[in-house]
Structures are given as C-alpha cells and as structure tokens.
Amino acid sequence: MWVFILYFCCQMTQSQRTSQGHTLAATLRSLWSGLRVTWKHLRSATRRNEHKAISDPDYFKSRQGVATIQYPHELLPIPDNGRYRLHNEIDDCIVCDKCAKICPVDCITMEPIRAVSEIGKTSDGTPKRLYAASFDIDMGKCCFCGLCTTVCPTECLTMTRVFDFSSYDIRDHYYSFAEMTEAEIAEKKAEWEAHQKEKAAASPKPAAEGTPKPSAEGTPKPPVEGKPARPVFKPRMKPPGTSS
Ligand code: SF4
Ligand code: SF4
Q1: Which of 87, 101, 144, 149 to mutate to test the pocket of ligand 1 (most atoms within 8 A of CB)?
Q2: Using one digit for the tens of pLDDT, what is the confidence trace for 165-212?
Q3: In the chain, where do the E strands start and end?
Q4: pLDDT tens across 75-110, in order?
Q5: Is residue 147 in some structural domain?
Q6: Is residue 51 part of a domain?
Q7: Does 180 lie in the same domain as 144?
Q8: Domain that holds residue 163
Q9: How far apart are CA 105 and CA 64, in angstroms?
Q10: Is 100 touching ligand 1 by the criterion CB < 6 Å?
Q11: How far, in Å, is the centroid of ligand 2 from the Cα of 126?
C-alpha cells in the first residue's frame, strides 16, 4: 500500500501534494482514533462484567467487561421485591376467598367446604373453619399485580423468586395447591350435611301457617322517663290539585 501511495505522490503537483497530504493525515488520524476504540474494547472483552443486582448502588458503574451471560447456567441477580410465580402455603390458608375477590383477571378459584368445628390453626394463630377442596391459580392469566398477596390475612399467598417457568403448553401454568383427595372431599361434605340435618332436627319448628305473628307495628314505644314522646310520623296523600 505504501508503494502505491508514494507512486501517486510522485505523480502529483506541489499544491495537489499539499492538499492530498492533509487529507491523508486526517484519514490516518481518524483511522487511529477508531483503532484505539476497537483496541480498548478488545482488551475489555478479556474481562467479565461483575453482575450486580439493580439495587446495588454501583450497578451503573460496572460497565467494563463482557456483559453477556450464559443463561440458564448463569443468572442475573433479581430484585427481592419483584413479582414472580405465586405460591400458596395451603396449610396456612383459611379459604377466605379474599384473594379471588380482589383478582382483576379472575385467575384464582377455590372450593371451600364448611367444617363442623374448628379444624386447626394457621402458623399465625388464625382459626381454620373451612377445608380447601380446591385452590387453583391460572398463572397463564395472571398479570402479576400482586393484589392477592396484599389482601391475604394469613400471608400464605406469596410471590416466589421463580420467574422462569415458560412452557410450550399454557395448561402447565395452571397450579393446584389443594391437597385433599376425592374421598376426603366427599367425607367432609357428608359430615357437614349430616351436621346441618341434626341442627334442623334439634331447632324448634316454625309456627303453623295462619297463626298471626306478633307485630311491633302500630305499638308505640313507651316514652323514656324524663324525655317527651316523639310524635309519630304518618305520611298522608296530598289532596288532588295542590302543588308542592
Ligand atoms: S397477582 Fe394479580 S392477577 Fe395475579 S393472581 Fe394475584 S391478584 Fe390475580
Ligand atoms: S386470601 Fe389467603 S387465606 Fe384467603 S383464600 Fe386467599 S390464600 Fe387463602
């Protein structure tokens, strides 16, 4: 290349040589600047970027080194307060339905069965009076708003740190947390029905039809001692032709 440049320089006039000399110098300067940047990045690529969590105060300072990671063998630190896959610690669930009611996309469903008596306590001491025949969350619908976790009175419904649960089949995103078997569900339902029948049999029968019920209507309350009796308000129809 240098021979080629020298040949052309010999063929040029003095003014042409000066002009071409400036151009060549500018080209070489530009080339040198570019090469310096390339060299700097080449040297930087021999080091690894230190992966810091976004909560780290030096997060935006660590720009040197290779930032690419070998996912899924390597993971970036994730924020602790992120919203990821939901989990229900079913032993602490009182099946109160609050989470299902607040869910904006109706992705939580449950079937409670009433218990005849208290069936235990959650880890925070809340009494349990309902069995969970089913408790399902369709994470395929979930918009990760986190509202269900904030209303849960026993804090059994939480966001886990599992964020990578992608699947080829959306039905895999349907999570069931209830642990009762079909036989147990049938048994508890039967227990409750028997209890209801027992209660109905023990309670006094309603009065026979036709017996006039005692009515409080029309019987003015006796005035409290020392207080004047309040006048009874009796609405009347307006006489026709009068305006308000
Ligand atoms: S995070 Fe929001 S959308 Fe998802 S289940 Fe809870 S309330 Fe429903
Ligand atoms: S709000 Fe909590 S305790 Fe109530 S049903 Fe939902 S997960 Fe269970």
Answers
A1: 144
A2: 999 999 999 999 999 999 999 999 999 999 999 999 988 776 655 555
A3: 86-88, 108-114, 120-121, 127-128, 130-138, 157-159, 174-176
A4: 888 888 889 999 999 999 999 999 999 999 999 999
A5: yes
A6: yes
A7: yes
A8: 86-184
A9: 43
A10: no
A11: 12
